Amino acid sequence: MEKININAVIPGMILGHDVVTKEGRLLFQKNQELSQKEIRTLKMWGIPEIIIVSESRNDPGTETRPKDQRARQFIDHWFRHNDITNPVINILYDICLDRLGKNLFEISSLFGKNREKTALPGQDKVGAVKDIRRLLNDRLKLPALPTIFAEINEAVQKPSCSGKEIASIVSKDPSLSATLLKIINSAYYGFTEKVESLQFAAMALGTRQVSSLALGITVVNYFKGISDKRINMQSFWRHSVACAITAKTIGAHVRGVEPERVFIGGLLHDIGRLVFLTVFPDDYNLLLSKLQGQGNFLYQLEPMSFGCNHAQFGSMLTETWNFSDKISKLIHHHHDEFKTLPQLEIAVVYISNWLVNATGIGFSGEKELPALNMNAWKALVIPPSLLDSIMKQVDRQVVETVRFFYE
Predict the structure, then answer these.
(1) Which of 230, 244, 326, 356 could, after both became Cys, cross-link 267 (CB 3.0–4.6 A)?
(2) What's the domain count of the chain?
(3) Residue 46: domain span
(4) Could you tell me if 310 and 401 lie in one domain?
(5) CATH (domain of 302)
(6) Secondary structure (H, E, C), the chain
(7) 365 backbone φψ class: left, alpha, beta (φ>0; ψ -120 to 50)
(8) Does 401 lie in the same domain as 326?
(9) How far apart are CA 390 and CA 407, in angstroms?
(10) Do residues 28 and 136 share a domain?
(11) In terms of domains, do 88 and 233 share one?
């Protein structure tokens, strides 16, 4: 028999002694074979370690145990800012362990392999930009988005906007039209017959849904020219698209949420970071170097160089592009530390971003997983048991959707 830390326990192990709580309640008896359900129960009761017999009935073998142990050590480290006894965290822990075993957990660098390291001559820190509006208006000098973006945005604001009007605007851009129809005909929407008309798509899905997709595609296309030598764009957009799909999936379970709005909020939540990375790569490289071994988060360090974090800047950027205030707020608050229950759609985008980071889908730059804000979770009023089906649905949809957005 041997004593083992609860986080090193794997299914198939057999208890060598009865397990009781501090209050004396019997949880499991000696010789109980442990499954994921029993392991989760032990963690929820705060059992720190157990005694197991040397061999399990499943006999996992000496070759797989070291791998399982390394996987658990990685997940333990990844979740170290979170309380593993929390039911939400506990379920996500098991989901991540399973994803890691199936090679679905992406651990990569946001910067491409061929990127050359650039030192800032004579500098070890970058001065903060005090006037963040000047950063937006003067220093960046970003060109305007395509005219079609403004046309769609203006049309969708009108109460009388029709599917025919949106279809007429989108059809002016053959590339946008083709991409939009590909997404609509994908498994994500599940039409039994092929949709060949943008007007029919607007009638079937709704004018706002089609226009939101068109706006999102336009913004993604705007940043397509960025070289992978500087930024791993596929990994970045995989994270963003997964966040959008997660937000829409969660939104379907929460009354009062507009699914297409949280989809766009999720898709564009890190757009401010993308601009920082694109326009100020040296400054951002320096921030990344400050993360090594310090347990800091990029969004906490960004104001050192830019006077604001990427969420705040992304919100200002979408305001400049005349997105609705509701979408700008989703982007602005996705890293907030909520002291009270946040507004529902803000909570949806915050939770979606946290879940996608936690489960390793794509990579947006953060090398640490922050603590889950429980006020955001409580605002959704959904059971933790939904998480497994939500993330499986995201996995099924993200690969095809990313291909359409970023091919």
Answers:
(1) 244
(2) 2
(3) 2-101
(4) yes
(5) 1.10.3210.10
(6) CEEEEHHHCCCCCEECCCEECCCCCEEECCCCECCHHHHHHHHHCCCCEEEECCCCCCCCCCCHHHHHHHHHHHHHHHCCCCCCCCHHHHHHHHHHHHHHHCCCCCCCCCCCCCCCCCCCCCCCCCCCCCCHHHHHHHHCCCCCCCHHHHHHHHHHCCCCCCHHHHHHHHCCCHHHHHHHHHHHCCCCCCCCCCCCCHHHHHHHHCHHHHHHHHHHHHHHHHCCCCCCCCCCHHHHHHHHHHHHHHHHHHHCCCCCCCHHHHHHHHHCCCHHHHHHHHHCHHHHHHHHHHHCCCCCCHHHHCHHHHCCCHHHHHHHHHHHCCCCHHHHHHHHCCCCCCCCCCCHHHHHHHHHHHHHHHCCCCCCCCCCCCCCCHHHHHHHCCCCCHHHHHHHHHHHHHHHHHHHHCC
(7) left
(8) yes
(9) 25
(10) no
(11) no
Whole-angstrom Cα distance, residue 364 to residue 348? 18
Spatial CB neighbours of 132, under 8 Å, sequence gap ≥ 6:
306, 307, 308, 312, 313, 316
Q: Does 332 share its domain with 258?
A: yes
For residue 61, what is the domain's CATH number? 3.90.105.10
Task: Verify that 47 and 137 share a domain, yes or no.
Answer: no
186 occurs within a structural domain: no
| 51: β partners | 3
Q: What is the pLDDT of residues 178-227, one digit of tens each?
A: 888 887 887 667 777 888 888 888 777 777 778 777 877 778 777 776 66
Residue 60 pLDDT class (50, 70, 90 cuts): very low
Determine the pLDDT at residue 124.
47
Largest CA distance in the chain: 74
Q: What is the pLDDT of residue 62?
A: 39
pLDDT digits (tens, 9 = 90+) for 279-324: 777 888 777 777 655 667 889 888 888 888 999 999 988 888 778 8
Q: What is the number of alpha carbons within 13 Å of residue 184 lying toward its C-beta?
A: 28
> Amino acid letter at 282?
D
Residues 36 and 89 grouped into a single domain? yes
Same domain, 137 and 25: no
292 lies in a domain? yes
Q: pTM of the full predicted structure?
A: 0.76
What's the rounded Cα separation, in Å, for the pair 195 and 396? 21
300 within some domain: yes
